[in-house]
Automatic annotation (TrEMBL), chain A:
Family of this protein: Belongs to the VPS51 family.
Subunit structure: Component of the Golgi-associated retrograde protein (GARP) complex. Component of the endosome-associated retrograde protein (EARP) complex.
Keyword Protein transport on entry: yes
Name of the protein described by the UniProt record: Vacuolar protein sorting-associated protein 51 homolog
Keyword set includes Transport: yes
Subcellular location: Golgi apparatus, trans-Golgi network; Recycling endosome
Pfam families xref list: VPS51_Exo84_N
Primary residence: Golgi
Region spans: Disordered: 283-320
Organism: Oncorhynchus kisutch
Automatic annotation (TrEMBL), chain B:
Alphabetical keyword list: Repeat, WD repeat
EIPR1-like beta-propeller domain location: 7-312
Annotated stretches, region: Disordered: 116-135
Record-stated family: Belongs to the WD repeat EIPR1 family.
Name assigned to this protein: EARP complex and GARP complex interacting protein 1
InterPro entries assigned: Beta-prop_EIPR1-like, EIPR1, WD40/YVTN_repeat-like_dom_sf, WD40_repeat_CS, WD40_repeat_dom_sf, WD40_rpt
Origin superkingdom: Eukaryota
Biological process (GO), any one: regulation of cellular localization
PANTHER family assigned: EARP AND GARP COMPLEX-INTERACTING PROTEIN 1, WD-REPEAT PROTEIN
SUPFAM superfamilies reported in the protein's UniProt record: WD40 repeat-like
WD repeats: 237-273
One Pfam short name: WD40
Length: 818, 400
């Protein structure tokens, strides 16, 4: 406090703002307005010695001063205080003066305001009276204008009516003018506007006259439109405009549809004729039978337009030129697609635009046009497509040469692809399915042709062989009669030995079959659109190719062989015995190896997609089954002491060997053998014939152009199926390893389900030892077999009531003996 | 969303019998029966504490012999049935004495001693507990010496625990348990007729049609039986290429049935059309030993195979909720799913949810918990029990 006071005193008087603040602060304090320093105040204010605090007690302060300060200090204090009091006094005086001044000026201002307001009040009164007068006047004016306003409304009504009437009166003239200018759409819209009015007032003679006039004109117009519509030359846009207008003129839609379709038909027929001209003229009849007159809703009307149809010179020019020089089938189909199919699509599109998809308005909706129109369209498209298809089929049938299948396939593909456009435009139409039918038929036919070709090839080569056989007697110069064949026949001067002939014969036949397969395979190539139709995915592969082509061919071979035998009986000795021998050998070989091979080839090429789904490693399963039965049916507790390896184990080893031989055969023949279920089944039945198979193995040269995708698929297949512990590579060893793994795993599982006696365990020991002796060489890692067999013996010991294992030496003796 | 790691529990013995305690709806509890020829067999009662991820076990002695099949009563927590081979040592003595013996598999109903629960929840490695296990109390034998080896004992689903079926060789025997399960009398039986030695490999008591249907498997065929007349109602010949190992009824669709077998396939059947399966899965690379529908969400199907894998599949398209759970479903009573479902979500595709490869030996049994629909256990031959959960993402997808 002292410091405070001193500070105040010592504050230089020239620091004005600071001083002012201090004064303000003190005033605030006096009026209790202080907020910022509240807490500080509270702490200080309790001090009775605080000269600025509320609790200031002068007595205490004085006593304190007196007690604490020396006389000098007291004197100083006193003078300081006097100085302060003085300055406070002067401050107060200044403030009072200032306040007084402000009060005076405020009083002046209030007085002045009072005068001003009085003046304003007068003006307001004046304003309100004026407003009242204005309201009155305005009401008066509107009252006066009321009548005139009504009159004006009436007049303007009359005016519009007159305008309308004028329009009506001028209508016939206007329509005529439109007719002259060929502004049909304007005419129709004008007429439509007037039509209902005329209809309504038709009891009045004048209107009646107008209506009649209009009708006459409109009839004429309709006539003209119809003429234009009938007139084929007009463009599609014109046509659609015509149809639009005619429809608006209440023309029956059905008739219009018919007419439109007839028109389209004439154009399409032109296309068809163009196509037909490219065909070799049919032997039986002339080109008049393009259009089957018994089909289509357009039949009634078709005669006239067909006869007098306007022919596009460009479209007809070509066929005349090219009728002599034959185009190939791809070109033909191309042309068919470009001309016929695309214009058909155009027709369908514009038809749908016109009749089916147009917005329904008023009375048109009730007639259910789209339904009727779609029905007509379907019938029309079907009819046209039938004609087209018959042409295409004729063309395909002409494609007799079996040489290049890819052209046909590409043509069919294009054909099929283009028909998809129709399908998209006209969902629910039978056309695409018919098209697919055609493709399927063509494929079937092609297979038949190939079969025939194969058969004739077979007969040819047989004949050559006969000649070759006969040749040695004649000198042997013409022994290589089969050298012109696709196969590597023994085209050489020396008389062919029997085995050589045999091998060349079978090799050439195989090669032929392979090439046929390759070309048939085109039908199922990935980029061909129809290859994913259900037929080509399933039936074509299994029925078409496998059954009708390959199997039939084999049947044919058998049959012809049998015929040879019969003819021998009939004519006695006309067939050289050597040929018979050769044939029988050939048949035998085919039975054992080639048929399997061909079927495998077929299977792998055509059934792969199908088979991958239910592919099973049948060998493994069969062995598993065998093992399971053998374990399950035996009473292991009461079995006798083992004297021998069980027959089942021998069978397992035998089967594994045969599988191994089979797989190695397939593996060597080319790296592309799918281990299909069929072939594997067969391998069991032909186990004894494996000697012959190996003999022919080198002739089936591996084709380098094997697609890697296929290989990877096989890889995946096997790794998924057989894999118990590790993925399998696709090679012989891995496949056999997989089979063995599965078998042994099965053995293990079965063993775990049983309880064994002492001799049961010993029998298992013997069996496992035997298996170990023979199985290790089939697998990639013999430790695996060891591991599994150990597991089996271990599990058996676990499940054994009296685990007393047999001496290893005894086991070995028994196995050796077995 | 991370999924909890599987919890693994190891038994000392080999084992192939696993069941969940059907009557227990609060605690997650599985029963495992061991297989040992040389030692006393045990039944391990395995409790799983879901929150702390802790397993606690208690062991009961099953001295009668090694356990091939185990099932728990749907009504009484303490009652269970087993199929077991007669005690090995007895068997051996007979064998030595007469050298003319057979391994006989019997069925019996047991009661757990009442004390097992009190104070027995020590940790698995408490030596005291596992060394002094209590014996099971025999209630009754399902005495079928005339009928051959029992392959499984089935309780009436959701029944009062008084009716069981035992499958013995080619007989299906329906037993009535009376006097608190201490008496068992055959009330009716059905016999499989045919060429060769026919033998039921497994069966399942259907929970539909008032529990009047039984499905059995023998060799490659699946047969349905009407329990009222004990006559065959359908027969799916060659249901699998090889032996059928297991069956399960869809708990929510009364005509649907799942089967699995040695051809590595799992097939789903509509028994109204037995000519071909509705769906067939081929994911395992060896025999499939066990197939189980989830009790609440029948799109979840669990399979266990001897390729040591357990596969959880999501078969939405043939489940009772092909488009997710619908709000207006009549059956909102199955508890836990009372949320509002977003019907606009995409229908799920059938898929493999996950493959569990914690086992190192063949998995012979898989089982859903009866208390927690999102939890399941699988048991492999080496005695390893693995408890897994449905992945959380899928769980929320199904629920929400």
């Amino acid at each position: 406090m002292d410091g405070d006071i001193c500070a105040t005193a010592t504050t230089p008087p020239d620091s004005d703002p600071a001083r002012k603040r201090r004064v303000h602060g003190m005033l605030k304090l006096y009026y209790g307005l202080n907020e910022e320093g509240k807490t500080v105040d509270q702490a200080e204010s309790m001090n009775p010695c605080d000269i600025n605090g509320t609790h200031f007690d002068p007595e205490v302060y004085l006593n304190k001063l007196r007690r604490e300060c020396s006389l000098g200090e007291l004197m100083d204090q006193e003078s300081c205080m006097v100085k302060q009091i003085r300055s406070l006094d002067s401050d107060m005086q200044t403030l009072v003066y200032e306040n007084y001044n402000k009060f005076i000026s405020a009083t002046d201002t209030i007085r002045k305001m009072k005068n001003d307001f009085k003046k304003m009040e007068d003006e307001m009164d004046c304003l309100s009276t004026n407003m009242a007068a204005i309201t009155e006047f305005s009401a008066h004016i509107s009252g006066t204008l009321q009548d005139q306003h009504a009159q004006i409304t009436k007049l303007s009504g009359v005016h519009t009516l007159l305008r309308k009437l004028q329009f009506l009166f001028e209508l016939p003239a206007r329509l005529n003018k439109c007719l002259e200018l060929q502004a049909y759409s304007q005419a129709v819209s004008s007429h439509r506007r007037a039509r209902c009015v005329l209809q309504q007032y038709s009891h009045m003679p004048s209107f009646r006259g107008i209506q009649d006039d209009c009708h006459a004109i409109m009839d004429k117009l309709a006539q003209e439109l119809r003429q234009k519509f009938r007139d084929g030359g007009s463009s599609a846009k014109d046509l659609s405009e015509c149809v639009e207008l005619l429809l608006q003129l209440d023309e029956p839609a059905e008739e219009l549809c018919d007419k439109f379709l007839i028109h389209a038909q004439s154009r399409l027929e032109a296309n068809l004729r163009g196509l037909e001209a490219e065909l070799r003229p049919p032997l039986s009849s002339g080109p008049t039978s393009v259009i089957d007159p018994s089909i289509g809703p357009a039949r009634r009307l078709s005669a006239a337009p067909t006869a007098g149809s306007p022919t596009d010179p460009t479209s007809l020019g070509n066929p005349f030129l090219s009728s002599s020089s034959r185009t190939d089938i791809l070109e033909f189909i191309d042309r068919g697609c470009n001309e016929f199919v695309s214009s058909l699509c155009l027709v369908i599109a514009s038809y749908q635009e016109l009749f089916v998809n147009r917005p329904q308005e008023g009375n048109l909706a009730s007639k259910n046009i789209p339904h009727m129109a779609i029905g007509k369209l379907h019938a029309f498209v079907d009819a046209m497509a039938t004609c087209y298809f018959s042409l295409v089929e004729r063309r395909i049938q002409e494609e007799k040469s079996v040489g290049d299948n890819s052209l046909l396939v590409r043509a069919l593909d294009r054909f099929h692809r283009r028909l998809q456009a129709v399908a998209k435009l006209l969902p629910g139409s039978a056309v695409p399915s018919q098209g697919t039918e055609i493709v399927v038929r063509a494929a079937r036919e092609r297979i038949q042709q190939y079969l025939a070709a194969l058969q004739s090839f077979y007969l040819d080569s047989l004949r050559d062989v006969r000649q070759a056989l006969a040749a040695p007697r004649l000198g042997g110069s013409s022994a290589g009669g089969g050298s012109h064949l696709a196969g590597p026949a023994t085209g050489k001067d020396a008389p062919a030995s029997l085995p050589e002939l045999l091998s060349s014969l079978s090799a050439s036949i195989l090669n032929q079959i392979k090439s046929v397969m390759a070309s048939v395979q085109l039908f199922t190539a990935k980029d061909i659109t129809f290859s994913n139709k259900p037929y080509f995915k399933g039936e074509f592969c299994s029925q078409g190719v496998r059954e009708s082509l390959v199997v039939n061919f084999i049947k044919f071979v058998c049959q012809s062989s049998r015929q040879f035998c019969e003819s021998v009986g009939d004519r006695g000795g006309s067939t050289p015995p050597a040929l018979l021998l050769l044939l029988s050998r050939l048949c035998l070989d085919y039975e054992t190896s080639t048929i399997t091979y061909i079927l495998t080839l077929t299977d792998e090429q055509f059934l792969v997609q199908v088979l991958f789904n239910h592919e099973k490693c049948v060998q493994g399963l069969i062995i598993s089954q065998m093992l399971r039965k053998s374990v399950e049916t035996r009473d292991w507790v009461n079995t006798i002491e083992p004297r021998n390896v069980r027959a089942v184990m021998k069978r397992v080893v035998e089967d594994t060997t045969s599988i191994d031989v089979q797989v190695s055969l397939l593996y060597e023949e080319g790296t592309r053998k799918a281990h299909s279920s069929d072939s594997s089944k067969r391998t069991f039945s032909v186990y004894s014939g494996s000697r012959q198979q190996t003999r022919y193995a080198p002739s089936y040269t591996p084709s380098a152009a094997m697609d890697t995708n296929f290989l990877s698929n096989i890889h995946k297949l096997f790794s998924e199926r057989i894999d118990i512990f590790s993925p399998v590579e696709f090679n012989k060893v891995s496949v056999v390893t997989g089979i063995i793994k599965i078998s042994l795993k099965t053995f293990l599982e079965c063993v775990r389900l049983r309880t064994f006696g002492r001799y049961g365990l010993q029998q298992i020991q013997v069996d496992c030892n035997y298996l170990q002796m023979y199985l290790w060489r089939f697998v990639s890692d013999e430790n695996l077999v060891h591991f599994l067999l150990d597991e089996i013996v271990g599990s058996t010991a676990h499940r054994c009531l009296d685990p007393a294992p047999m001496e290893q030496s005894v086991i070995e003796v028994i196995c050796e003996r077995g | 969303m991370e999924d909890d790691a599987p919890v693994i529990y190891g038994l000392e013995f080999q084992a192939r019998a696993l069941t969940s305690q059907t009557a227990e709806s609060d605690a997650i509890r599985f029963l495992v029966g061991t297989q040992s020829l040389k030692f006393d067999n045990q039944i391990h009662i395995i409790d799983f504490d879901d929150e702390n991820n802790i397993i606690s076990k208690s062991v009961l002695l099953h001295q009668a012999g090694e356990i091939w099949h185990i099932s728990a009563s749907p009504a009484d927590k303490a009652v269970l049935s087993t199929c077991y081979n007669k005690n090995a040592t007895q068997l051996l003595s007979i064998f030595v004495a007469t050298s003319e013996s057979r391994v006989v598999t019997c069925g019996a109903v047991w009661r757990m001693p009442p004390e097992w629960e009190s104070g027995s929840h020590e940790s698995p490695d408490d030596p005291h507990n596992s060394h002094n296990p209590q014996n099971l109390e025999l209630l009754c034998h399902l005495d079928n010496s005339a009928h051959g080896n029992a392959s499984s004992v089935l309780w009436e689903p959701m029944g009062d625990g008084t009716r069981v079926i035992s499958l013995a060789d080619n007989h299906a025997l329906l037993w009535d348990l009376t006097e608190s399960s201490t008496q068992a009398t055959i009330s009716s039986s059905a016999t499989l007729e045919g060429k060769g030695q026919l033998k039921f490999t497994s069966g399942k008591w259907g929970p539909h049609h008032n529990c009047t249907q039984l499905a059995t498997a023998n060799d490659t065929a699946i047969r349905g039986w009407d329990l009222r007349t004990m006559s065959q109602i359908y027969c799916i010949e060659n249901a699998h290429g090889q032996l059928v190992r297991d069956l399960d009824f869809n708990p929510n669709k009364q005509y649907y049935l799942a089967s699995c077998g040695d051809d590595c396939k799992v097939k789903f059947w509509d028994v109204r059309n037995i000519n071909e399966p509705v769906k067939s899965l081929e994911e395992h690379s060896h025999w499939v030993w066990s197939v189980r529908y989830n009790h609440s969400h029948d799109q979840l199907v669990l399979t266990g195979s001897s390729d040591s894998r357990v596969i959880l599949s999501n078969m939405v398209s043939i489940s009772s909720e092909p488009f997710g759970h619908l709000v207006d479903d009549d059956d909102l009573s199955d508890g836990e799913d009372n949320h509002q479902y977003d019907k606009s979500k995409e229908p799920l595709q059938d898929s493999i949810i996950s493959t569990y490869e914690e086992h190192e030996d063949s998995v012979y049994a898989v089982e859903w918990s009866s208390a927690d629909p999102w939890l399941f256990a699988s048991l492999s031959y080496d005695g390893r029990l693995v408890i897994n959960r449905v992945p959380r993402a899928l769980k929320y997808h199904i629920l929400l």
